[in-house]
Design a protein that fits this description.
CATH topology of the largest domain in chain A: Rossmann fold
Strand content of chain A: 5-15%
Protein name (chains A, B): Response regulator transcription factor
Largest interface: A-B, 39 and 40 residues
CATH architecture of the largest domain in chain A: 3-Layer(aba) Sandwich
Number of strands of chain A: 6
Number of helices of chain A: 11
Oligomer: homodimer
Number of domains of chain A: 2
CATH class of the largest domain in chain A: Alpha Beta
GO biological process, one term (chains A, B): phosphorelay signal transduction system
Order of helices and strands of chain A: EHEHEHEHEHEHHHHHH
Radius of gyration of chain A: 23 Å
Helix content of chain A: 40-55%
Keywords (chains A, B): DNA-binding, Phosphoprotein, Transcription, Transcription regulation
GO molecular function, one term (chains A, B): DNA binding
Largest sheet of chain A: 6 strands, parallel
Organism (chains A, B): Tenacibaculum pelagium
Shape of chain A: elongated
Amino acid sequence: MEVNKEIKIFIVDDHKMFLDGITVILNNISGLIILGVAENGKEALKLIPNLKPDILITDIDMPIIDGIELTNQLRLSYPNLKILAVSSHNNSTTISKAIKAGINGYILKNTGKVELLKAINTIFNGENYFTKEVKQLINDSIFNNKEAKKNKVKLSDREKEVLYLIAHEKSTKEIAEKLYVSINTVETHRKNLMRKVGTKNMVGLVKYAIQQGLI
Amino acid sequence: MEVNKEIKIFIVDDHKMFLDGITVILNNISGLIILGVAENGKEALKLIPNLKPDILITDIDMPIIDGIELTNQLRLSYPNLKILAVSSHNNSTTISKAIKAGINGYILKNTGKVELLKAINTIFNGENYFTKEVKQLINDSIFNNKEAKKNKVKLSDREKEVLYLIAHEKSTKEIAEKLYVSINTVETHRKNLMRKVGTKNMVGLVKYAIQQGLI
DNA sequence: ACTCATGTCACGGAAAACCGTGATTAATAA
DNA sequence: TTATTAATCACGGTTTTCCGTGACATGAGT
Protein backbone atom coordinates (compact mmCIF):
# COMPACT_ATOMS: atom_id res chain seq x y z
CA MET A 1 0.00 0.00 0.00
CA GLU A 2 1.84 3.05 -1.20
CA VAL A 3 1.15 6.59 -0.23
CA ASN A 4 0.17 8.61 -3.25
CA LYS A 5 0.12 12.02 -1.72
CA GLU A 6 0.81 13.58 1.60
CA ILE A 7 -1.57 16.19 2.83
CA LYS A 8 0.16 19.18 4.35
CA ILE A 9 -1.78 20.65 7.21
CA PHE A 10 -1.62 23.81 9.27
CA ILE A 11 -3.69 24.16 12.41
CA VAL A 12 -4.86 27.28 14.23
CA ASP A 13 -6.64 27.23 17.56
CA ASP A 14 -6.39 29.40 20.61
CA HIS A 15 -7.07 26.47 22.93
CA LYS A 16 -3.71 24.85 23.43
CA MET A 17 -5.20 21.58 24.62
CA PHE A 18 -7.20 21.21 21.50
CA LEU A 19 -4.22 22.18 19.40
CA ASP A 20 -2.06 19.53 21.04
CA GLY A 21 -4.77 16.91 20.82
CA ILE A 22 -5.50 17.33 17.17
CA THR A 23 -1.80 17.53 16.35
CA VAL A 24 -1.08 14.21 18.02
CA ILE A 25 -4.05 12.60 16.37
CA LEU A 26 -3.16 13.76 12.89
CA ASN A 27 0.58 13.17 13.34
CA ASN A 28 -0.14 9.51 13.92
CA ILE A 29 -1.80 9.22 10.57
CA SER A 30 0.60 8.73 7.75
CA GLY A 31 -0.47 10.57 4.67
CA LEU A 32 -0.84 13.67 6.77
CA ILE A 33 1.91 16.11 7.72
CA ILE A 34 1.44 18.84 10.29
CA LEU A 35 3.51 21.66 8.85
CA GLY A 36 2.88 23.94 11.76
CA VAL A 37 0.42 25.28 14.28
CA ALA A 38 -0.53 28.67 15.62
CA GLU A 39 -2.49 29.89 18.61
CA ASN A 40 -3.99 32.90 16.91
CA GLY A 41 -4.82 34.26 13.50
CA LYS A 42 -2.01 36.81 13.37
CA GLU A 43 0.63 34.16 13.91
CA ALA A 44 -1.04 31.98 11.30
CA LEU A 45 -0.95 34.75 8.72
CA LYS A 46 2.80 35.10 9.26
CA LEU A 47 3.59 31.41 8.93
CA ILE A 48 1.28 30.21 6.20
CA PRO A 49 2.89 32.03 3.23
CA ASN A 50 6.18 30.19 3.75
CA LEU A 51 4.77 26.80 4.68
CA LYS A 52 2.22 26.56 1.88
CA PRO A 53 -0.07 23.98 3.48
CA ASP A 54 -2.74 22.12 1.52
CA ILE A 55 -5.23 22.41 4.32
CA LEU A 56 -5.78 24.92 7.07
CA ILE A 57 -7.74 23.68 10.02
CA THR A 58 -8.94 26.65 11.99
CA ASP A 59 -11.06 27.32 15.01
CA ILE A 60 -13.82 29.82 14.37
CA ASP A 61 -13.94 31.54 17.74
CA MET A 62 -10.62 33.17 18.40
CA PRO A 63 -9.64 36.56 19.82
CA ILE A 64 -8.43 39.41 17.57
CA ILE A 65 -8.50 37.59 14.23
CA ASP A 66 -11.14 34.89 14.25
CA GLY A 67 -11.43 32.00 11.80
CA ILE A 68 -13.71 33.90 9.47
CA GLU A 69 -11.48 36.95 9.30
CA LEU A 70 -8.54 34.63 8.77
CA THR A 71 -10.35 32.97 5.91
CA ASN A 72 -11.21 36.32 4.38
CA GLN A 73 -7.59 37.40 4.47
CA LEU A 74 -6.26 34.16 3.01
CA ARG A 75 -8.90 33.33 0.44
CA LEU A 76 -7.82 35.79 -2.24
CA SER A 77 -4.10 35.19 -1.99
CA TYR A 78 -4.35 31.43 -1.67
CA PRO A 79 -7.32 30.22 -3.67
CA ASN A 80 -6.12 26.63 -3.61
CA LEU A 81 -5.79 26.48 0.14
CA LYS A 82 -8.53 24.34 1.61
CA ILE A 83 -9.90 25.67 4.84
CA LEU A 84 -11.65 23.48 7.35
CA ALA A 85 -13.50 25.29 10.10
CA VAL A 86 -13.81 23.60 13.46
CA SER A 87 -16.15 25.15 15.94
CA SER A 88 -17.58 24.27 19.29
CA HIS A 89 -20.99 25.67 18.57
CA ASN A 90 -23.11 25.98 15.51
CA ASN A 91 -25.23 29.02 14.95
CA SER A 92 -26.46 29.78 11.50
CA THR A 93 -25.10 33.32 11.35
CA THR A 94 -21.54 32.20 11.96
CA ILE A 95 -21.85 29.34 9.53
CA SER A 96 -23.34 31.65 6.94
CA LYS A 97 -20.45 34.07 7.29
CA ALA A 98 -17.92 31.28 7.17
CA ILE A 99 -19.38 29.96 3.95
CA LYS A 100 -19.44 33.40 2.40
CA ALA A 101 -15.79 33.85 3.40
CA GLY A 102 -15.02 30.76 1.40
CA ILE A 103 -14.35 27.90 3.79
CA ASN A 104 -14.39 24.42 2.34
CA GLY A 105 -15.65 22.54 5.33
CA TYR A 106 -17.23 23.00 8.73
CA ILE A 107 -17.26 20.44 11.48
CA LEU A 108 -17.98 20.57 15.17
CA LYS A 109 -15.46 19.95 17.92
CA ASN A 110 -17.53 17.20 19.38
CA THR A 111 -17.38 15.15 16.22
CA GLY A 112 -15.15 12.14 16.20
CA LYS A 113 -11.82 11.51 14.65
CA VAL A 114 -13.35 9.41 11.95
CA GLU A 115 -15.36 12.34 10.74
CA LEU A 116 -12.37 14.66 11.02
CA LEU A 117 -10.44 12.38 8.70
CA LYS A 118 -13.37 12.18 6.37
CA ALA A 119 -13.60 15.94 6.29
CA ILE A 120 -9.89 16.32 5.57
CA ASN A 121 -9.98 13.76 2.80
CA THR A 122 -13.09 15.23 1.30
CA ILE A 123 -11.91 18.81 1.12
CA PHE A 124 -8.47 17.70 -0.01
CA ASN A 125 -10.19 16.08 -2.94
CA GLY A 126 -11.77 19.37 -3.86
CA GLU A 127 -15.21 18.82 -2.42
CA ASN A 128 -16.76 20.67 0.46
CA TYR A 129 -17.54 18.91 3.69
CA PHE A 130 -20.14 19.99 6.17
CA THR A 131 -21.13 17.96 9.15
CA LYS A 132 -24.71 16.78 9.35
CA GLU A 133 -25.95 19.37 11.83
CA VAL A 134 -24.41 22.15 9.79
CA LYS A 135 -26.00 20.88 6.60
CA GLN A 136 -29.32 21.00 8.37
CA LEU A 137 -28.76 24.57 9.45
CA ILE A 138 -27.69 25.59 5.99
CA ASN A 139 -30.90 24.25 4.60
CA ASP A 140 -32.99 25.84 7.30
CA SER A 141 -31.55 29.31 7.46
CA ILE A 142 -29.31 30.35 4.62
CA PHE A 143 -31.40 29.07 1.80
CA ASN A 144 -34.37 30.87 3.17
CA ASN A 145 -36.30 30.41 -0.02
CA LYS A 146 -37.83 27.59 -1.99
CA GLU A 147 -35.26 25.17 -0.66
CA ALA A 148 -36.22 25.79 2.92
CA LYS A 149 -39.85 25.23 2.13
CA LYS A 150 -38.96 22.14 0.23
CA ASN A 151 -37.31 20.70 3.28
CA LYS A 152 -40.11 21.51 5.63
CA VAL A 153 -42.98 19.78 3.92
CA LYS A 154 -44.08 16.40 5.02
CA LEU A 155 -45.04 13.97 2.34
CA SER A 156 -47.38 11.15 3.10
CA ASP A 157 -46.30 7.57 2.51
CA ARG A 158 -48.43 7.35 -0.57
CA GLU A 159 -47.02 10.56 -1.94
CA LYS A 160 -43.50 9.34 -1.39
CA GLU A 161 -44.41 6.18 -3.22
CA VAL A 162 -45.75 8.14 -6.17
CA LEU A 163 -42.76 10.46 -6.15
CA TYR A 164 -40.44 7.49 -6.16
CA LEU A 165 -42.15 6.09 -9.22
CA ILE A 166 -42.19 9.46 -10.98
CA ALA A 167 -38.48 9.77 -10.37
CA HIS A 168 -38.08 6.36 -11.93
CA GLU A 169 -39.49 7.64 -15.16
CA LYS A 170 -42.88 6.04 -14.81
CA SER A 171 -45.83 7.78 -16.41
CA THR A 172 -49.02 8.51 -14.55
CA LYS A 173 -50.68 5.63 -16.32
CA GLU A 174 -47.96 3.20 -15.34
CA ILE A 175 -48.04 4.37 -11.75
CA ALA A 176 -51.81 3.95 -11.60
CA GLU A 177 -51.50 0.40 -12.85
CA LYS A 178 -48.75 -0.40 -10.41
CA LEU A 179 -50.62 0.96 -7.41
CA TYR A 180 -54.04 -0.35 -8.49
CA VAL A 181 -55.64 3.07 -8.34
CA SER A 182 -57.13 5.31 -11.00
CA ILE A 183 -55.15 7.75 -13.09
CA ASN A 184 -57.10 10.54 -11.45
CA THR A 185 -55.79 9.54 -8.06
CA VAL A 186 -52.22 9.52 -9.21
CA GLU A 187 -52.74 12.91 -10.80
CA THR A 188 -54.10 14.24 -7.54
CA HIS A 189 -51.09 12.91 -5.69
CA ARG A 190 -48.85 14.52 -8.25
CA LYS A 191 -50.64 17.81 -7.92
CA ASN A 192 -50.34 17.67 -4.15
CA LEU A 193 -46.69 16.79 -4.44
CA MET A 194 -46.06 19.76 -6.69
CA ARG A 195 -47.94 22.03 -4.32
CA LYS A 196 -46.06 20.76 -1.28
CA VAL A 197 -42.67 20.76 -2.91
CA GLY A 198 -43.32 24.13 -4.48
CA THR A 199 -42.69 23.35 -8.09
CA LYS A 200 -44.72 23.44 -11.26
CA ASN A 201 -43.56 20.35 -13.08
CA MET A 202 -42.00 16.91 -12.92
CA VAL A 203 -38.52 18.33 -13.24
CA GLY A 204 -38.83 20.04 -9.88
CA LEU A 205 -40.20 16.89 -8.34
CA VAL A 206 -37.32 14.80 -9.58
CA LYS A 207 -34.78 17.30 -8.32
CA TYR A 208 -36.50 17.28 -4.96
CA ALA A 209 -36.55 13.49 -4.87
CA ILE A 210 -32.86 13.29 -5.63
CA GLN A 211 -32.02 16.01 -3.15
CA GLN A 212 -33.95 14.18 -0.46
CA GLY A 213 -32.33 10.90 -1.31
CA LEU A 214 -35.62 9.26 -2.19
CA ILE A 215 -34.17 7.48 -5.18
CA MET B 1 -11.90 15.94 19.94
CA GLU B 2 -13.51 12.81 21.25
CA VAL B 3 -13.68 9.49 19.54
CA ASN B 4 -17.25 8.53 18.90
CA LYS B 5 -16.79 4.97 17.77
CA GLU B 6 -13.98 2.60 17.22
CA ILE B 7 -14.00 0.58 14.08
CA LYS B 8 -13.07 -3.05 14.59
CA ILE B 9 -11.16 -4.46 11.66
CA PHE B 10 -10.09 -7.90 10.54
CA ILE B 11 -7.65 -8.31 7.70
CA VAL B 12 -7.04 -11.26 5.40
CA ASP B 13 -4.24 -11.41 2.88
CA ASP B 14 -1.93 -14.19 1.79
CA HIS B 15 0.93 -11.77 1.25
CA LYS B 16 2.52 -11.34 4.63
CA MET B 17 4.27 -8.14 3.68
CA PHE B 18 1.05 -6.49 2.73
CA LEU B 19 -0.61 -7.82 5.83
CA ASP B 20 2.11 -6.35 8.05
CA GLY B 21 2.11 -3.05 6.20
CA ILE B 22 -1.58 -2.43 6.37
CA THR B 23 -1.69 -3.55 10.00
CA VAL B 24 0.96 -1.03 11.02
CA ILE B 25 -0.72 1.72 9.06
CA LEU B 26 -4.14 1.13 10.53
CA ASN B 27 -2.84 0.48 14.04
CA ASN B 28 -1.42 3.99 14.08
CA ILE B 29 -4.82 5.46 13.49
CA SER B 30 -6.86 5.82 16.56
CA GLY B 31 -10.47 5.08 15.93
CA LEU B 32 -9.43 1.86 14.29
CA ILE B 33 -8.70 -1.42 16.05
CA ILE B 34 -7.14 -4.38 14.31
CA LEU B 35 -8.88 -7.31 15.95
CA GLY B 36 -6.91 -9.87 14.06
CA VAL B 37 -5.40 -10.96 10.80
CA ALA B 38 -5.28 -14.11 8.77
CA GLU B 39 -3.20 -15.34 5.87
CA ASN B 40 -5.92 -17.33 4.20
CA GLY B 41 -9.64 -17.62 3.99
CA LYS B 42 -9.93 -20.77 6.05
CA GLU B 43 -8.20 -19.22 9.00
CA ALA B 44 -10.35 -16.12 8.65
CA LEU B 45 -13.54 -18.18 8.75
CA LYS B 46 -12.40 -19.71 12.04
CA LEU B 47 -11.52 -16.45 13.73
CA ILE B 48 -14.21 -14.06 12.57
CA PRO B 49 -17.21 -15.57 14.43
CA ASN B 50 -15.54 -14.95 17.78
CA LEU B 51 -14.00 -11.58 17.02
CA LYS B 52 -17.07 -10.00 15.43
CA PRO B 53 -15.30 -7.26 13.46
CA ASP B 54 -17.11 -4.32 11.90
CA ILE B 55 -15.04 -4.45 8.79
CA LEU B 56 -13.27 -7.24 6.97
CA ILE B 57 -10.53 -6.15 4.64
CA THR B 58 -9.75 -8.99 2.31
CA ASP B 59 -7.51 -9.64 -0.62
CA ILE B 60 -9.34 -11.00 -3.61
CA ASP B 61 -6.69 -13.31 -5.02
CA MET B 62 -5.87 -15.95 -2.48
CA PRO B 63 -5.30 -19.70 -2.74
CA ILE B 64 -7.96 -22.24 -1.69
CA ILE B 65 -10.61 -19.78 -0.46
CA ASP B 66 -10.36 -16.48 -2.28
CA GLY B 67 -11.92 -13.19 -1.23
CA ILE B 68 -15.09 -13.77 -3.19
CA GLU B 69 -15.65 -17.23 -1.78
CA LEU B 70 -14.92 -15.84 1.66
CA THR B 71 -17.50 -13.13 1.12
CA ASN B 72 -20.04 -15.66 -0.07
CA GLN B 73 -19.56 -17.75 3.03
CA LEU B 74 -19.77 -14.82 5.42
CA ARG B 75 -22.47 -12.71 3.82
CA LEU B 76 -25.46 -14.74 4.97
CA SER B 77 -24.35 -15.32 8.53
CA TYR B 78 -23.04 -11.81 9.08
CA PRO B 79 -25.16 -9.38 7.11
CA ASN B 80 -23.85 -6.39 9.05
CA LEU B 81 -20.22 -7.17 8.42
CA LYS B 82 -18.77 -4.68 5.97
CA ILE B 83 -16.36 -6.25 3.52
CA LEU B 84 -13.74 -4.21 1.74
CA ALA B 85 -12.02 -5.96 -1.13
CA VAL B 86 -8.46 -5.04 -1.91
CA SER B 87 -7.04 -6.33 -5.12
CA SER B 88 -3.92 -5.81 -7.15
CA HIS B 89 -5.66 -5.92 -10.47
CA ASN B 90 -9.03 -4.90 -11.71
CA ASN B 91 -10.80 -6.98 -14.26
CA SER B 92 -14.49 -6.58 -14.68
CA THR B 93 -15.34 -10.23 -14.21
CA THR B 94 -13.76 -10.38 -10.78
CA ILE B 95 -15.32 -7.11 -9.74
CA SER B 96 -18.68 -8.26 -10.99
CA LYS B 97 -18.45 -11.45 -8.96
CA ALA B 98 -17.31 -9.57 -5.90
CA ILE B 99 -20.26 -7.22 -6.11
CA LYS B 100 -22.69 -10.08 -6.58
CA ALA B 101 -21.16 -11.77 -3.54
CA GLY B 102 -22.03 -8.69 -1.54
CA ILE B 103 -18.85 -6.76 -0.90
CA ASN B 104 -19.22 -3.19 0.28
CA GLY B 105 -16.13 -1.72 -1.27
CA TYR B 106 -13.38 -2.43 -3.74
CA ILE B 107 -10.09 -0.63 -3.88
CA LEU B 108 -6.80 -1.36 -5.57
CA LYS B 109 -3.55 -2.13 -3.79
CA ASN B 110 -1.80 0.74 -5.47
CA THR B 111 -4.14 3.28 -4.02
CA GLY B 112 -2.87 5.44 -1.21
CA LYS B 113 -3.52 5.38 2.47
CA VAL B 114 -5.78 8.38 2.24
CA GLU B 115 -8.13 6.50 0.00
CA LEU B 116 -7.94 3.41 2.17
CA LEU B 117 -9.10 5.46 5.13
CA LYS B 118 -11.81 7.02 3.04
CA ALA B 119 -12.97 3.59 1.97
CA ILE B 120 -13.03 2.32 5.54
CA ASN B 121 -14.94 5.32 6.79
CA THR B 122 -17.36 5.20 3.94
CA ILE B 123 -18.32 1.56 4.24
CA PHE B 124 -18.39 1.81 8.01
CA ASN B 125 -21.04 4.47 7.55
CA GLY B 126 -23.12 2.06 5.54
CA GLU B 127 -22.30 3.28 2.07
CA ASN B 128 -20.41 1.40 -0.57
CA TYR B 129 -17.03 2.55 -1.72
CA PHE B 130 -15.50 1.78 -5.07
CA THR B 131 -12.32 3.32 -6.28
CA LYS B 132 -12.49 5.44 -9.39
CA GLU B 133 -11.12 2.87 -11.81
CA VAL B 134 -13.53 0.28 -10.50
CA LYS B 135 -16.47 2.62 -10.85
CA GLN B 136 -15.46 3.15 -14.44
CA LEU B 137 -15.33 -0.57 -15.06
CA ILE B 138 -18.69 -1.06 -13.43
CA ASN B 139 -20.19 1.48 -15.75
CA ASP B 140 -18.49 0.06 -18.79
CA SER B 141 -19.09 -3.61 -18.33
CA ILE B 142 -21.62 -4.64 -15.74
CA PHE B 143 -24.24 -2.06 -16.47
CA ASN B 144 -24.09 -2.86 -20.11
CA ASN B 145 -27.32 -1.05 -20.74
CA LYS B 146 -28.73 2.45 -20.69
CA GLU B 147 -26.26 3.62 -18.08
CA ALA B 148 -23.26 2.74 -20.18
CA LYS B 149 -24.70 4.56 -23.14
CA LYS B 150 -25.56 7.52 -21.00
CA ASN B 151 -21.97 7.94 -20.06
CA LYS B 152 -20.63 7.59 -23.54
CA VAL B 153 -22.68 10.12 -25.46
CA LYS B 154 -21.30 13.49 -26.32
CA LEU B 155 -23.65 16.40 -26.10
CA SER B 156 -23.05 19.49 -28.17
CA ASP B 157 -22.69 22.86 -26.48
CA ARG B 158 -26.14 23.89 -27.55
CA GLU B 159 -27.61 20.66 -26.25
CA LYS B 160 -25.92 21.13 -22.91
CA GLU B 161 -27.33 24.64 -22.79
CA VAL B 162 -30.83 23.35 -23.44
CA LEU B 163 -30.42 20.54 -20.95
CA TYR B 164 -29.23 23.02 -18.35
CA LEU B 165 -32.35 25.10 -18.83
CA ILE B 166 -34.62 22.06 -18.79
CA ALA B 167 -33.08 20.99 -15.52
CA HIS B 168 -33.82 24.45 -14.20
CA GLU B 169 -37.49 23.89 -14.74
CA LYS B 170 -37.80 26.03 -17.83
CA SER B 171 -40.46 25.10 -20.35
CA THR B 172 -39.71 24.72 -24.03
CA LYS B 173 -41.29 28.07 -24.67
CA GLU B 174 -39.18 29.81 -22.06
CA ILE B 175 -36.03 28.20 -23.39
CA ALA B 176 -36.87 29.28 -26.92
CA GLU B 177 -37.30 32.87 -25.77
CA LYS B 178 -34.10 32.80 -23.81
CA LEU B 179 -32.05 31.40 -26.67
CA TYR B 180 -33.79 33.46 -29.37
CA VAL B 181 -34.69 30.41 -31.41
CA SER B 182 -38.02 28.87 -32.29
CA ILE B 183 -39.89 26.41 -30.14
CA ASN B 184 -39.40 23.84 -32.86
CA THR B 185 -35.66 24.13 -32.54
CA VAL B 186 -35.73 23.63 -28.81
CA GLU B 187 -37.97 20.62 -29.27
CA THR B 188 -35.53 19.16 -31.72
CA HIS B 189 -32.71 19.65 -29.26
CA ARG B 190 -34.80 18.01 -26.59
CA LYS B 191 -35.57 15.09 -28.84
CA ASN B 192 -31.91 14.66 -29.70
CA LEU B 193 -31.02 14.88 -26.03
CA MET B 194 -33.50 12.18 -25.16
CA ARG B 195 -32.21 10.01 -27.97
CA LYS B 196 -28.59 10.48 -26.94
CA VAL B 197 -29.20 10.06 -23.25
CA GLY B 198 -31.47 7.11 -23.85
CA THR B 199 -34.56 8.22 -22.04
CA LYS B 200 -38.13 8.91 -22.99
CA ASN B 201 -38.98 11.96 -20.95
CA MET B 202 -37.77 15.02 -19.05
CA VAL B 203 -37.36 13.04 -15.86
CA GLY B 204 -34.60 10.98 -17.41
CA LEU B 205 -32.94 14.10 -18.75
CA VAL B 206 -32.93 15.77 -15.36
CA LYS B 207 -31.51 12.70 -13.68
CA TYR B 208 -28.81 12.59 -16.32
CA ALA B 209 -28.05 16.27 -15.90
CA ILE B 210 -27.71 15.89 -12.14
CA GLN B 211 -25.65 12.75 -12.46
CA GLN B 212 -23.30 14.53 -14.86
CA GLY B 213 -23.06 17.53 -12.62
CA LEU B 214 -24.49 19.86 -15.23
CA ILE B 215 -26.60 21.76 -12.74
C1' DA C 1 -15.85 15.33 -52.83
C1' DC C 2 -18.29 13.30 -49.43
C1' DT C 3 -19.86 12.35 -44.87
C1' DC C 4 -21.08 13.66 -40.40
C1' DA C 5 -22.35 16.57 -36.59
C1' DT C 6 -24.42 20.71 -35.47
C1' DG C 7 -27.91 24.05 -35.37
C1' DT C 8 -31.80 25.75 -37.25
C1' DC C 9 -36.89 25.30 -38.50
C1' DA C 10 -41.70 23.11 -39.77
C1' DC C 11 -45.98 20.26 -39.31
C1' DG C 12 -49.35 17.21 -37.42
C1' DG C 13 -51.07 14.17 -34.30
C1' DA C 14 -51.05 11.40 -30.00
C1' DA C 15 -50.09 11.25 -25.34
C1' DA C 16 -49.16 13.12 -21.11
C1' DA C 17 -48.92 16.69 -17.97
C1' DC C 18 -51.03 20.62 -15.89
C1' DC C 19 -54.89 23.14 -13.53
C1' DG C 20 -59.09 24.05 -10.93
C1' DT C 21 -62.65 22.41 -8.52
C1' DG C 22 -65.19 19.43 -5.87
C1' DA C 23 -66.55 15.06 -3.50
C1' DT C 24 -66.38 10.75 -0.34
C1' DT C 25 -64.47 7.92 3.20
C1' DA C 26 -61.63 6.82 7.09
C1' DA C 27 -58.60 7.81 10.55
C1' DT C 28 -56.59 10.96 13.63
C1' DA C 29 -55.78 15.15 16.29
C1' DA C 30 -57.44 19.13 18.82
C1' DT D 1 -67.31 16.87 18.61
C1' DT D 2 -65.08 19.09 15.23
C1' DA D 3 -61.36 19.86 12.29
C1' DT D 4 -57.71 18.06 9.64
C1' DT D 5 -55.21 14.75 6.85
C1' DA D 6 -54.70 11.15 3.93
C1' DA D 7 -56.36 8.57 0.20
C1' DT D 8 -59.42 7.93 -3.15
C1' DC D 9 -61.98 9.41 -7.55
C1' DA D 10 -64.20 12.55 -11.34
C1' DC D 11 -64.46 16.04 -15.12
C1' DG D 12 -63.30 19.39 -18.43
C1' DG D 13 -60.20 22.14 -20.42
C1' DT D 14 -55.48 24.03 -21.56
C1' DT D 15 -50.77 23.46 -22.24
C1' DT D 16 -46.80 20.87 -22.89
C1' DT D 17 -44.42 17.04 -24.01
C1' DC D 18 -43.60 13.37 -27.04
C1' DC D 19 -42.90 11.35 -31.68
C1' DG D 20 -41.93 10.89 -36.58
C1' DT D 21 -40.44 12.83 -40.46
C1' DG D 22 -38.23 15.95 -43.29
C1' DA D 23 -35.49 19.95 -44.69
C1' DC D 24 -31.57 23.38 -45.16
C1' DA D 25 -27.07 25.57 -44.16
C1' DT D 26 -22.52 25.36 -42.15
C1' DG D 27 -18.25 23.68 -40.92
C1' DA D 28 -15.00 20.05 -39.72
C1' DG D 29 -12.91 15.93 -40.83
C1' DT D 30 -11.74 11.75 -44.19
